[in-house]
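note to self — DONT lose this again. spent like an hour looking for the file last time. sequence + predicted structure for the chain T wanted, 383 res
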Amino acid sequence: MVMVLVPRERRSGENRVAATPETVKTCCAAVLTLQLEAGAGTAAGYADPDYAAAGALVVPAEALAWGDADVVLCVGPPAPEQLARLKPGALLIGLLEPYGASERLELLASREVSAVSMELLPRISRAQSMDVLSSQANIAGYKAVLLAAAALNRYVPMLMTAAGTIQPARALVLGAGVAGLQAVATARRLGAIVFVSDVRPAAKEQVESLGGRFIDPPAEQERPAEAGGYAMAASEAFLAAQREQLAQQLALADMVICTAQVPGKRAPRLISDGMLAGMKPGSVIVDLAVAQGGNCEGSVAGETVERYGVQLIGADALPSSLAQHASALYARNLLALLQHLRSSGELAVDPSDPILEGCLITHGGLCQRSDLLPQAAPTLTPA
């Protein structure tokens, strides 16, 4: 019988959990044994008795059987001392933050652990039910608008009162990916007029279907390429042209939601200090890309700072602030992948599987993604 282990997340501010009573029940019905660390779901609103009722074995941290686990489900990467206890052939699934984590990759490879980093999951139709980035970005886009509206010094919708009419707030969303589109939808529901900037002309139809107004990107020959559903890194010439285009929009905006990111790269700097100086005092910027360097100059992860009368909210962990639903969606994503890997009845990790291609970072004692390692690093071999 396959034994699945779910530890409690240790990172400060991380309230999500990798399994819920709903997904535990499904796992146990599939003849899996699930061991969960006591208190793992408390911060997300899931109590230990509910897990036990669903079939989980709830144990204290010191009793977790890391060495016996066939599968470990997590949100962030476990501590090195925990990973060092995993047995050869164990499967680790979570947001493993592989970029620049060569020591973690070496440790996983030396233990012959098969590690699946969910942020690298390919964007193909077969993997939609497993797409954790989309499920979590949806939450981030929604919460970002609520934060901006709460910090704003004015109403968001248009209001007609006996004292006169209040005009609706003007929102600007940078990036029309999952987070950006959810931000558009949420801002529109609150009554804002929403403008959207994205480097991909194909995003126009999606933006307009939600009631947003699309800002056409700069000259076609300067546009960055797209791969796997993400825009690739843009040239400096393109970014300069885009910043010039955005300056006028920023001067009119009441709230700005920044969502532009490139996987594995520093986030593009779209808003300069000079552009901030041209914005209206009292306006608000929520930077969802702050953990990757930020789309806005001066934003600080986890903090709200003020420059030129503009509030800059460095929103680096919004899914965790809505931990119950974020965990529910995340756990379903992991369960969908686990069910796929057991579709034949046995747990099987096949590096040639199109779903695992790209997100299986270590397997059989080897690193499967040489691009994640420093160029000078030697090829990893089994211990």
